[in-house]
Design brief:
- It is a single chain.
- The protein is mainly alpha-helical.
- It has nine helices and no strands.
- 30% of the residues are buried.
């Protein structure tokens, strides 16, 4: 009986440790984006609820979000969001929702969540957002599934040339360009 109780105690401690590590990963991402403790707790709960309701691994989502936030500041409010009158907290919530959707997209297309989130962050930095970003992600994941590209390599090795080309293309659109 003592051995059984010890085993159960160890399992419970393992679950607690795992949950604490996931919470720490989410909180680190939110703090990097400028969220304070109360906002971070609300964002963390939002992310955990999303993951649970959609059958996503919360640890994988937290790790992917952390990688994308560290490399591309995907949760930070943008000037466009501030221009629309969003508070920084509302912008972080909007960005979190967008990138949780990217995590779900990655799972649904059988891609690595971290790689897809980083590519989405790279595209956002280049001004490719909304439906254009989704179309680009669909094309890139399709190419990755066919073996034509490796998504992880896109952000690791091809980032500078790709961003330069995207920046050139976006700048050619002119001031009256819209997302359509």
């Amino acid at each position: 009986a003592r051995q059984f109780a010890s085993g159960i105690h160890g399992e419970i401690q393992g679950v607690r440790l795992n949950r604490a590590q996931i919470n720490r990963k989410f909180s680190g991402s939110f703090y990097q984006a400028g969220a304070r403790q109360d906002e971070s707790a609300a964002l963390r709960q939002r992310a955990l609820t999303f993951a649970r309701e959609r059958g996503l691994d919360a640890g994988e989502v937290a790790g992917a979000l952390g990688a994308a936030q560290t490399e591309f500041s995907v949760l930070a409010p943008t000037s466009q969001q501030r221009g629309r009158g969003l508070s920084d907290a509302a912008a972080r919530r909007e960005n979190l929702d967008q990138y949780l959707g990217v995590a779900e997209f990655a799972r649904d297309t059988d891609q690595n969540q971290g790689e897809v989130m980083r590519v989405a962050g790279m595209l956002s930095q280049a001004g490719i957002t909304g439906p254009q970003q989704r179309e680009t992600l669909l094309a890139m994941t399709g190419m990755a599934q066919q073996g034509a590209i490796e998504l992880g390599a896109v952000t690791r090795t091809a980032l500078a040339p790709i961003q330069a080309r995207m920046g050139t293309a976006v700048s050619r659109l002119g001031p009256g360009a819209t997302e359509q």
